[in-house]
Amino acid sequence: MMIPKLQYITQGNSPKEQLENIQKACSSGAELVQLRFRDTSEKKLLKLANEAREITAHFQTRLLINDHYKIAKTVKADGVHIEKTSICPTIARKYLYTWQMIGGTANTLQDCEILLKKEVDYIGLGPFQFTKTKDNLPTILGLNGYTAILEELNTETPIIGVGGITTADVTDILKTGISGIAVSGEITRNFNTIKTFHQLLKASSTEEQRYTFK
Known about the structure:
CATH topology: TIM Barrel
Largest sheet: 8 strands, parallel, barrel
Helix content: 40-55%
Number of strands: 8
CATH class: Alpha Beta
Strand order of the largest sheet: 1-2-3-4-5-6-7-8
CATH superfamily: Aldolase class I
Number of helices: 9
Oligomer: single chain
Distance between the termini: 27 Å
Shape: globular
């Protein structure tokens, strides 16, 4: 299963804002959207997830639901992203369709090792730097943190960088061995950055191919 190198984590204070941002992200070329909408009832979230599924399906964009794996199954989203304090990925896996992917959040080497044992499809590792989108922010990892963790891990499972990432960070982040990024703020501020992110991420993979064929 190929995980797109760029994932947009949604923002918006209301379902309407969320859907507008998903529409903009998809029409700007987003390949994967993670629906994250906190502090709402399950019923409202289900309605929002259904509408998000319609938009993403129209653009053939993949959709992940943050944490709510039962909603992810109901709306037939492409998968779920599980936060650290949430359900165990193994339990979610038993519940979901076999084709649905599971990502998990990690802040430390130990978190990554636990998630790998639970056979997640990718790991969101962060925060890379300070970000306002999360309360009680764990230790900021930066480039040195990423490098140290990835050298230890030595895994085929994609490790996705997350947390305050801007277009200026991409080239250096990819040198650490990170295979993709999840972005919220920078994209919501300007959806045109999706194209820039794609170019930067693609440049790195074409470079890798060049090295392989020498």
